[in-house]
Amino acid sequence: MLQVRKSQERGYADHGWLRSFHSFSFAGYYDEAHMGFGNLRVINEDRVAAGAGFGTHGHKDMEIISYVLSGELAHKDSMGNVESIPPGDVQRMSAGRGVMHSEFNHKADETTHFLQIWILPKERGIAPGYEQKQFSDAEKRGKLRLVASPDGSDGSVTVNADARLYAGLLDGDEKASLSLDPARKSYVHLVRGELEVNGQKLSGGDAAMLEGESQVSLAAGKDAEVLVFDLAA
């Protein structure tokens, strides 16, 4: 089974300094039909205005991934990490038993565009942790590059969750596929461009939810950037 959810069906919030699309229920947006998918709980597509950001706030027992698309995101947390996250970097923060952090766009004339992703942890109450790695466009061109996994395989960041995250760039005749366990779930989020997922056409911001499928096949990309999640049911 494959179900498409169009970009315009997502929740939306405009706070002036922050414009955010919510794939699942979050903050003031509530939709009981979209509380998450498998152990994927949040995908927020955020645009943070120049000179603005999220003040210090806390998280607990959540695996949080930041995927920057343009601009830069400055990160500071109670573990002592002070980092800048540019496009191409994948940042993972395990909130564990509790962490405080802030995120800011220090650019004077550029919006920061990024995806904030939350995945439910497989173990609660662990020590908080942080990891950040760069994945070049060449690693993602015409293929699905593993960027997050439970065991850090293939140089991916390590998440305390039964989930794997792949990123890909596809254009023209480029194709990519991923074998799936039909007992699990898969979620495809098209970041930008156009792409066919198992024959279904998606545009930027659209998503495909797959259940009982043995493969996800990606083709007919037009400047497409895509994230594919392999998730616990």
TrEMBL record:
Annotated Pfam families: Pirin, Pirin_C_2
Enzyme class name: oxidoreductase
Family, as annotated: Belongs to the pirin family.
Keywords: Dioxygenase, Iron, Metal-binding, Oxidoreductase
Name this protein carries in UniProt: Quercetin 2,3-dioxygenase
Annotated source species: Variovorax paradoxus
Assigned EC number: 1.13.11.24
Keyword Oxidoreductase: yes
Positions with a binding annotation for Fe cation: H57, H59, H101, E103
Gene for this chain: yhhW_3
Annotated ranges, domain Quercetin 2,3-dioxygenase C-terminal cupin: 146-231
